[in-house]
Amino acid sequence: MTIDIGGVKIPDSKFASEVTELAREHTTPLLFNHSSRVFCFGALAGRDRGLKFDPELLYCGCMFHDFGLMKQYSSEDERFEVDGANAASDFMKQHGISQGDIDTVWTAIALHTTPGIPQHMHPVVALVTAGVEMDVLGMKYEQYSEAERDAVTKAFPRTPQFKEDIIQAFYDGIKTKPDTTFGNVKADVIADKEPSFRRGNFCCVIRESKWPA
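^ that's the sequence the OP posted. Answer follows.
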């Protein structure tokens, strides 16, 4: 796979190629293209922020970050983020990757839906989340040029109804284990003490993002 977007290249080593092959085989076209865009946007963010990172580790984190939504990788009682992180860990161990690098990728996947923390961590951890936040929520949309956005979506197209499709994919992946969705307890505390408090809604942010679809 030879794709160069603004100086960002999809890794084409044997390891990265096997990551690509596994992602194509075991996820859906929707999630494969989404994960590929996450890498592109994450790598572009890293370039613009002057961060030093291993593109293969970033690619692995991005391509595995939603594996936990797939039935064959989904456990009965772990968060889907942990399932995806475990899948990446198992794969990397089979390829002789160092434990330190495995831990970095595991953390990047496990924290990709936990805002406010990843940006303070290792660049791979920060950039997986940056890519997800851009592709799903349109965060920092203006910081990517129109040419970059167009190039990424041309290489890895969004579906015509991507926002609704990705919400449905999340639902399908977690609906059998709702207890794993317990999240930010601080919002619960404020809501308990302030009846007028309106907490943020992930789905509303997706639908209201600056992406056209």
